[in-house]
Amino acid sequence: MPRYTVHIRDEWLAVPCRDPTYTIQWLGYEALKRYTKNKPDNGGINAVKDIRFVARRCQGQGLLDGDDTIEDVLEDNDFVEIVHKQHALSSLQNLFLDGNSLTSTDLVNLGRVVYGITTGFGKFARTVIPVHKLKELQENLVRSHSAGVGNPLSPERTRMLLALRINVLAKGYSGISLETLHRMIQAFNASCLSFVPEKGTVGASGDLAPLSHLALGLMGEGKMWSPKSGWADAKYVLEAHGLKPISLKPKEGLALINGTQMITSLGAEAVERAQAIARQADIIAAITLEVLKGTSKAFDSESHRFCDRVQDAYTMRCCPQVHGIVNDTIDFTQKIINTEINSATDNPVSFTALDFLAIGVHELAAISERRIERLCNPSLSELPAFLVNEGGLNSGFMIAHCTAASLVSENKVLCHPSSVDSLSTSAATEDHVSMGGWAARKALRVVEHVEQVLAIELLAACQGIEFLRPLRTTTPLEKVYDLVRSVVKPWIKDRFMSPDIEAVHRLLLDQKVWNVAQPYIEKYNMELLPESRPISPTAFSLDPPASPRKRIRLE
User: Fold this and answer.
1) Which residues belong to any copy of the Par3/HAL N-terminal domain (predicted)?
2) pTM of the predicted structure, to 2 decimals
3) What number is the average pLDDT over the span 167-183?
4) Is 314 tagged catalytic?
5) How far, in Å, CA of 62 to CA of 114, rounded?
C-alpha cells in the first residue's frame, strides 16, 4: 500500500493510501485527523473539516492542487507539507517592479506563493516581411521557438521567471506596449503560469526556448497552470480568471523571448539558498567541533598559546577559512545576479558566475562529508561506531554517511563549468553561446546536495551529543539541538532514516537553524569581541567568561 509522509507544523506523519485515485485534499484532511488525534487540545484545531489548507511538495515547494488525484502528482513515499491557507498568504505583500531595484531576495520571495521587426530572425534576418504579416511573424516566432523539452518548471519558479521578465520590460528599452505589459502583470497576479520546460536553452540571445513557452501561454496557446484551474489549455485558464490573451504587435514577440530571465531567476534562487545554507553551515560545524572535542584556540589570534592540543584536522581547524571563501564567492555572485536582474538583457551571450557559485558552495559539502566521517569513525571520534549502540545489530549512520559521500561525488561532476562548452547554433549566426541555462540548473542541484549533506552532518552531530550527556554544550548550540529534536528523535535503534534527513533538510530550507542561533551571534558580537572583529558562528564553542556550566569540549 502506498504511503506518504506529511509535514504539519513540527510533526511528520505517515499516511497510508488504499486508493491512489483519492485526491490531495483527502490526503491533507487524513493527515490533519492523525495530527489532532493524540493532541490534548486537538492541536488547537477545532474542526478538521473547516480547515482551509495549502498542500505543497517538501522538495522544491511546488504547490499541489487539492483536486488532483494522488497517483497523478505523487510517487510512493513522497513528502508533502500542509500549511494553513491564511498562514501561507500572510507573508504576501505588493512589490513594485521598476526595472531598477529588484533584488534576488525579492525575486525568490515572489516565487514562493504559490532585430526582427520587419525582417526574419537569425539566418532569415535579410528576409523582408510584408506589413500585413508582421503580427503573424511575431506569433510564428513564439510558436516555433517553443521547442523546449523535459519537466516543466515548478509554479514557484515560473512565477519568478514571469516576474523577472516583467521587471526587465518595465525599463522601456525592449519595444513592448503598455497593453501587453499590463496583461502580463494581470496574469502574474492571478498566478496564471505557462508550461515552461526546463531544458532547451543554450543561452544564445538569451533563454529563447523557455521564454517562448512563457509567452506562448500568455498568447492563450499551449498549457497553463493556476491554483484555481490546475493544468489546462492556456486559453481556458485565462478565461477562468477573466483575462484576455496578449495580442502581439511588431517587435513584441522578440521583446518577450530575448533575455536571460530563466538563467537569472534560477540563479537568484541558487544564490539565495547558497547564502542561507552557508551561514547555517557555520553553526553545524560548531556542533561537530564540540562533539569531537576540538579546540577553538585555532580560531584565536594567539593560537595554541595555552592549549595542550596542538592541532585538529583541517576539516575542523580550517573551517573558518574554507567557509569564509565560500561566503566571498556567494557575495560576488549575488552582486552579478542583482545587476543582471535589473538589466535590459535583450541580446546576452555569456553568463559564467553560476559556474563559479557551484564550485564555491560545493566546498561546504566536501568539508562537511569529511566531518561526518570523523563523527562516524570510532578511531577518530571516541564515540560508538556509526553513532549507535549495539553495532552490528544496528548500522546507525553507516549509510547516511555513504549518502553524503555520493552527493559530494555527484557535485564533483556537476561543478564542471558549463561555460567552457560552446556549440554553434542558428546556422552559425549564434556561434558562441553561454550554456548558462545548464549552469543555473546544475548550480541549484549542487546547492540542494550541499543542503542535504549538511542535514546529515547536523543529524550526526546531534546524535553524538547523546553519547556525551550529561555534559552540555553552549547555549546557542543547545538551542539548535532542541530544534532538531523537535522534529527527529534520538537514534536508539535502527529505523527508516530518510524522513529524518528530509525533516532536518526542511529546517535548513526554512532557515530555522539560523533563526535559533542568530540572536546569540549578535549578542556575542556585542559582548565578547571588539566591534572591529565580528564573531564567526564557528567560534560558538566560546561561552561567556562568567558561565559556570560544563562544556563538552576538553581543553
Assistant:
1) 5-80
2) 0.79
3) 91
4) no
5) 8
